[in-house]
Design goal:
- It comes from Nocardia fluminea.
- This protein is of the alpha+beta class.
- Among the domains are: about 10-160, Jelly Rolls; about 275-320, no CATH class.
- Helices cover about 45% and strands about 20% of the residues.
- A 7-stranded antiparallel sheet has the order 1-3-4-11-6-9-12. Strands 2-5-10-7-8 form a 5-stranded antiparallel sheet.
Length: about 325
C-alpha cells in the first residue's frame, strides 16, 4: 500500500538539514498526532512525511518515516489538554508496541488502537507507513457506549481483518478529497461506524447494527470494485462473495445512491473513460467488454446517457486534447 496522495502533505523533513531533521520530526508528530519523545533507530539520514486532512472531529492521514522509537510518557500525558483514540493500520513495514499492558508486533495489514491518555512505546527498525484515524476519546466512548477504561487500547486486529477494509475506505476518502473536499467530508463522517466496529471487534465485543451495516456496505463495495468488469455479475454471486444473505445484500445496496445498478454502471463507465483514451483499446467493442458491459449497445446507451456524447465522440475530443466537460 502507498501513501494517500489525495490528502495534502501538511509536514515533512524533506527540506530540513539532516542534523535538524529528527528534532523537527518530533515537533511535527506532536502537532499532527500527539506529543511524544522520539529517537532514531537507524544510522542513515532520517526522512518523514505526514499527509492529513480534518473532517470535523475526525483527523485522517498517513505517516511515512524511517526507523525510530517513539515514547509517550506520563510527563506528556500530565500536560495534555485533551486525549484521543487513534486507530492505526500498518500499510508497509513493521513495528513493536507496548501499550496499556499489551506488547505486540505490527505487520502490514494489522490494526491497533492507541489511547493517548496512557503511555505508549513504539519502535520500528526501518521504513514504515501507516494510516491513522484520530478521534476525540470522549466521542469514541459515547459512540461505543462503553466506559473509558474499556477502550481497546493496545489491542490488535490481525492482517486480513477490518483494518485493510478501513484503509481502503479512507483511501477512497483521500481520492475524493483531492477533487471534492465537501463530498469527502460527508463520506468520512460515515467512517466512524467502521472505526467503531473495528474497536468493538478488537475488544472482543459484538458490533452494533450501524457498525455491522457499515462493514457490510464497505465489503460489498470492495467486492464490486474487484468484479465489476464481469458482465454476468448477479445478486447471488455478490451475496456469496461477500458471505452475506441476499436479504442483507438488498438492505445494504438500498443505501447506495441509485441502488446497485447505478453503482455498477458508474464503476464501468469510469473504467470505459480510461480505456477510451488508451492506445491499447482502439475498438469500442473491446472497451465495452473490458469495462463489464454485456453488449456494445448497452455500453453506447449508458455512455451517452452519462456524458451526452458517444464513445467515439468522447475519444475524438480526448485525442484532440480539448477539455472534456
Amino acid at each position: 500500500m502507498t501513501a494517500f496522495e489525495g490528502f495534502p502533505e501538511i509536514c515533512s523533513t524533506a527540506h530540513i538539514a539532516a542534523s535538524d531533521a529528527f528534532a523537527h520530526w518530533e515537533q511535527l508528530v506532536a502537532g499532527a498526532i500527539t506529543e511524544v519523545s522520539i529517537a532514531p533507530t537507524v544510522s542513515r539520514p532520517f526522512e518523514g512525511r505526514i499527509r492529513s486532512a480534518d473532517f470535523g472531529d475526525i483527523s485522517v492521514g498517513t505517516v511515512t518515516a524511517e526507523g525510530h522509537e517513539l515514547r509517550r510518557s506520563r510527563r506528556h500525558i500530565a500536560r495534555a489538554d485533551d486525549f484521543h483514540v487513534i486507530g492505526s493500520v500498518v500499510l508497509a513495514g513493521r513495528a513493536q508496541v507496548e501499550h496499556a499492558g499489551n506488547r505486540v508486533e505490527l505487520t502490514p495489514g494489522a490494526m491497533i488502537f492507541y489511547d493517548t491518555s496512557q503511555p505508549i512505546r513504539w519502535r520500528s527498525e526501518g521504513l514504515i507507513e501507516d494510516l491513522t484515524v484520530r478521534v476525540p476519546r470522549q466521542q469514541v466512548v459515547d459512540h461505543l457506549g462503553v466506559r473509558a477504561d474499556a477502550l481497546p487500547a493496545g489491542m490488535v486486529i490481525g492482517e486480513g481483518g477490518v483494518g485493510p477494509m478501513l484503509a481502503r475506505f479512507f483511501r477512497q476518502v483521500a481520492q475524493l478529497h483531492s477533487t471534492d473536499p465537501a463530498a469527502a467530508a460527508v463520506l468520512a463522517s460515515s467512517g466512524i461506524d467502521l472505526l467503531g466496529a473495528a474497536a468493538t471487534i478488537a475488544s472482543g465485543g459484538r458490533p452494533g447494527r450501524a457498525q455491522i451495516e457499515a462493514v457490510n456496505g464497505q465489503q460489498v463495495l470492495d467486492y464490486l470494485r474487484a468484479n465489476f468488469t464481469d458482465p454476468e455479475l448477479t445478486i447471488e454471486r455478490i451475496a456469496d462473495g461477500c458471505r452475506v444473505s441476499r436479504r442483507t445484500l438488498y438492505r445494504v445496496v438500498a443505501e447506495f445512491e441509485g441502488g446497485l445498478g447505478a453503482v455498477l454502471r458508474g464503476m464501468r463507465l469510469e473504467r470505459a473513460r480510461v480505456l477510451l483514451v488508451s492506445s491499447d483499446f482502439r475498438s469500442v467493442a473491446a472497451v465495452a467488454t473490458a469495462s463489464g458491459f454485456a453488449t456494445e449497445r448497452q455500453f453506447y446507451r449508458a455512455f451517452q446517457a452519462e456524458t451526452g456524447m458517444t464513445p467515439g465522440e468522447y475519444r475524438a475530443i480526448a485525442d484532440s486534447d480539448a477539455p472534456i466537460a
